[in-house]
Amino acid sequence: MKDRPIRVLELTGGPEHRGAVHGAAFHNEIRRYTAERVALAVEGAWSGGASSRDDVYALAEAMLPAHALYDPDLYEEMLLMAEAAGITPAEAVIVGGFTDFADTLRAAGGSPPVEDDCTAVIVPDDRASGAGFLAQTWDMHDTATRHVVMLDVQPPGAPRALVFSTVGCLGQIGMNEAGVAVGINNLTAANGRIGVTWPFVVRAALAASTFEGAVKAIVDAPVAGGHSYLVLAEGRGCVIEAMPGGCSMLPLEPGRVLAHTNHCLVAEAASQEAPRPADLTASSTARLDRALALLADGDVDADRLMALTRDAEAICRRSEPPYHVESCGAVVMRPATGDLWAVWGIPADNEYEYFSLKR
Asked: Is CATH 3.60.60.10 correct for 1-359?
């Protein structure tokens, strides 16, 4: 394995790991978060039906070879993290790639899922003073919020990257020093399979130095479940709706913001979606429409994107029954300039912090 140093950065506001982002206390937090994710998988609300703990672990173990084959270095990084934290490799798959793992569980049969997460946008260069943005909320079950961290990843032979993530997860949203930014939305695939979970795909894309390289890392991945991946680099952007049955792409066009939430916009990908409750479908549509309306015209800067993530009408989510989903954090990235702003927790309640990869 290549040496892949990772520094965990603090985001102000989180109650659990503040001041204890290394060593035993941090490993304890990984174990707590893992226990929460495993419990959700067993309970079955996010996968459409309850499963036994033995079945959950057996499925996660069956997915390990796909991860090892897709990116051996990332796989060894995951194993080392698991060993240090005192969790099993199977548990590392669950805690890191939970929603894709839920798609794979769902494929065995179950009722509609109760997941609904994230609002993301790509702003083209000509709407952002020559240097475009990728911005998004990260929405998840409210138990995830206290586990949010930023990672400073410095692998030899690949670009340094700043990565928004949660403890025990290799990476969720990020930007590298070569000017590649990657974001995500969850999609609910009906045809989940044994395959690679989305944090591996994000980190593999962030190891690329070009737009084409990042796109190739995504479309070549044998994904386990459904996600849309947003890529912005070299003034070019796209959304890739990656499902186990194949990928569909939406290109960024001059003068127009490209937005995505939690339903497929391309018919080929939509044909692979699992049915969802009507209120979750309505939420995804409302958030997409609201994001496009808020950025319909005029110049866009970081402050305007931060305001979008704080939008109380549709985008900034607060936990409430029965789903208990909230905006656990948000990120604004400008890859051409190396500027990144991130916020822990509900964006409307907390302040963004600035990070830089300026070359």
From this structure: yes
